[in-house]
Amino acid sequence: MNMAILNFLSDIRNAAIANAVIVIFHIYIAFAVEGVGFLVIVLPIGALVAGAYFVKGKIGAALLALPTLAYLFVVPDLFNALSTGESGGDDHIGWGVYILAPFWLFTILLNIVTIVAEARGTSKYAKK
Prior knowledge:
Elements: H1 2-9, H2 12-34, H3 39-55, H4 57-72, H5 75-84, H6 97-120
């Protein structure tokens, strides 16, 4: 069972899917709330995730590390939103933060485990 969990967490396909959910949600937020200028941030992150998925290996790990580092800068705001109920400038999200924050934190964990597996060459996509 532990190996199944580790295999799930280290699969770059699962990381790409989780990141795609975040990117798609933020594309919706860009059009619905923030404005199209917000896509300047969102689309490059989506491109990095797509690049990581298609390239894989050490280069894929490096590409996936960039959005993960950006996500880590958001963690303090996530904890603030969970503890106080205030989500920074996005007060309209309201109760949605209780769904988004755990998913975002799970995606960060998924990315980190995937990055390690890809960089070490221990993923199932590593060239033997």
